[in-house]
Amino acid sequence: PGCVNTTEIDIKKACRMNKPIKSTKHLALGLAGGRISPSVSEADLLTPMDSIKQDIDLLRTRIDRCNFKVSKAAESFISYWEQYQEYDPFITATDPPNPWVTDCPEFWEGEKLGKEIPTKRVRRWAFSVQELLKDPIGREQFVKFLEKEFSGENLMFLNAVQELKCLPQKDVNDKVQAIWDQFLAPNAPVPVNIDSKSMNITKKNMQNRDRWTFDAAAAHLYHLMKSDSYSRYLRSEMYKEFLSGSRKK
């Protein structure tokens, strides 16, 4: 439906009927015999200004039309703000006070004394795996949980890949070989389990080594850790004890 059957109507005639003039440049495109391009209709040749005005009105209508749902975007921004508002120092006062803004040294003294970890800080670990790994204490506890689950090598591999990207260029080749020998070689002392697709990509990248040789394997392991290990950690008794404030640093 909507298509032109060229066995019933001439294709040039169909072009003249269905395609309006695009610009006044077509007026100068004269062909042999006084004919104009078949994409230009006879009515457009007589009233080019009217056709241009219709194009302008159509473009104005498209500009005014909203191409995405503002309500959905606003809801996502509002939910993000509600989640992080108690961690925004401009809105909620920090406890203890920020030592870089105030003259109160309680933050440093609390770190030395090893007080209980604030519940607000532990609750933030459940926002995402990035929030958990960004917190030194959360990262330490997550490593212990992975060791109990016999999957600590995944985080070790991800850390090694991140270190690789920060090394000087002269050390990249040696670091790539060290990561391969430790985690991915046939007789690796700390083997990681990745799928065949990621392994084939990594083997191909080993022929031309650079900082991104292990990106495919790292992405696969990060997805597994995020969808499996991280969700199990949030359901574990270890996290629940920290969340209840019964565990000290």
Task: Sum up the structure in keywords.
249 residues; mainly alpha; 57% helix
What can be said about this structure in brief?
Keywords: Signal transduction inhibitor. This protein is an all-alpha fold and 249 residues long.
Show the helix and strand layout.
Blueprint: H1 11-18, H2 42-46, H3 48-64, H4 70-84, H5 106-113, H6 119-123, H7 129-134, H8 136-148, H9 152-164, H10 169-184, H11 196-205, H12 215-234, H13 237-243
Helix pairs in contact: 9-10, 9-12, 11-12
Protein name: RGS domain-containing protein
Keywords: Signal transduction inhibitor
Organism: Penaeus vannamei (Whiteleg shrimp)
In N-to-C order, the SSE pattern is HHHHHHHHHHHHH
Largest sheet: none
What is the residue-mean pLDDT, rounded to a whole number?
80
Structural class: mainly alpha
CATH architecture of the domain at 135-244: Orthogonal Bundle
Would you report the number of β strands?
0
Poorly predicted tracts of residues: 21-38
**Oligomeric description of these chains:** single chain
Number of helices: 13
InterPro entries: G-protein_gamma-like_dom, GGL_sf, RGS, RGS6/7/9/11, RGS_Egl-10, RGS_sf, RGS_subdomain_2
Keywords: Signal transduction inhibitor
Pfam families: G-gamma, RGS
GO cellular component, one term: neuron projection
Describe the structure.
57% of the residues lie in helices and 0% in strands. With 249 residues, it is mostly helical. The chain has a domain of 110 residues: Regulator of G-protein Signalling 4, domain 2. The chain is extended. About 7% of the residues have low confidence.
